[in-house]
Amino acid sequence: MFLRDKMSATIVQPAPPMEKQTTVGNYFVSNYPPFSFWKPELADEVLAAMERPPKPNTPLGVYLHIPFCRKRCHFCYFKVYTDKDSTAIRGYIDAALKEMALYAGKPVIGGRKASFVYFGGGTPSYLSVDQLKYLTDGMKKLISWEGVEEVTFECEPGTLTCHKLAAIREMGVTRLSLGVENFDDHILEINGRAHHSKEIARAYHYARELGFPQINIDLIAGMVEETDANWKECVRKTIEMSPDSVTIYQMEIPYNTGIYKEMKAAGKLVAPVADWEVKRAWVAYAFGELEKAGYTVGSAYTAVKSKEKTKFVYRDRLWAGADLLGLGVASFGHIQGTHYQNQHDFETYVKAIHEGKLPVFRALTPTEDERLIREFVLQLKLGQVSCDYFQKKFGVDVRVRFAEPLRTLHDWGFGEVEGDKVKLNRDGLLQVDRLLHEFFLPEHKNARYA
Ligand code: SF4
After folding, report:
1. Which residues line ligand 1 (CB under 6 A)?
2. What is the model's pTM?
């Protein structure tokens, strides 16, 4: 049970603020403190961090943002370009390699090899086989992938041929993540997705034949015009394909999406997608069906077929404070305790690199307490957190440090402390991102993630 003093045990907590409708703004908490607190004037802190050798046993990850897509999805809030030709793409790859070279010789690397690599986007699979080979050969020369635990590669099904998938497997990808999102062609089309349903089956079949160790399917609960019946069919088809893991996000509508622009033009405050209760019910249904099929729910967004075999190294290392070299336009990184984000404009990013400068746009070095909050809230997305881990790492009993928000969660009926573990129930897990703000410092509560 939660720590509670005599007085507070008698206080009845008000019900949690329930935002029912989907309005504009971010739901997903991807880091802490919120990005709006990262500042350009703190960018030099990254330069200082590069000069310090790593703390012993800190794993090193590499994230590369590939900002190219065939079309811009109407719900997309990432930095992506749909108009770059092969010369611009080659220029971008060269810039990313140069950026990596700026880090490679610095004390921060300290002779470490990459323990995980992540190609995110945008659409990494938009690159041609030659571009991919050139890029990954170059990366491996700068920071070795030897002994790497996981290499993740995000794909848009319509960009995959058997030849390209073979090349992706050949370059050492262990985890292929297919951005399926939905199986209905009409829903894919009206949400601006570039792929069609038949391309999903084809790409998945090729990928299975090539023996990727882990194939993940991404779904979105609550795309425009989603219905109960169609969602059930999406879940059925996913289970029939039998991927190693399934990731499900609840549709959010941040400010820089096409959907928000249309809402604004029409003077609408509510997005034309299902409300939060319905989206949560859809994820609950999917998790329930996946569990019946033998999957285990491992976080607020993921279910895995085999708990023993299927790991999420990138997620788990990052949420436990690993170093991450974030390369490419608008990428997020974290080295030696300093968060940073790169320039988010293509030309500005490439220009900085050509001038031999780190393309860092903004940064923040969190305090020890903020680092503790960061790891706690991110790990809470797994559904349970070990108090012992925080005691050993930060010398803090999180049951005491977070006594008040833990009591609130308990009173709202979303979780409990059981011995060494802080645990969320399924209801709490399905809305974890909004609950995490309870653990934030007052000045960060409900701040914008932009
Ligand atoms: S494929 Fe992904 S990154 Fe590209 S536009 Fe769609 S949502 Fe954005």
Report:
1. 69, 72-73, 76, 78, 80, 121-123, 156, 179
2. 0.94
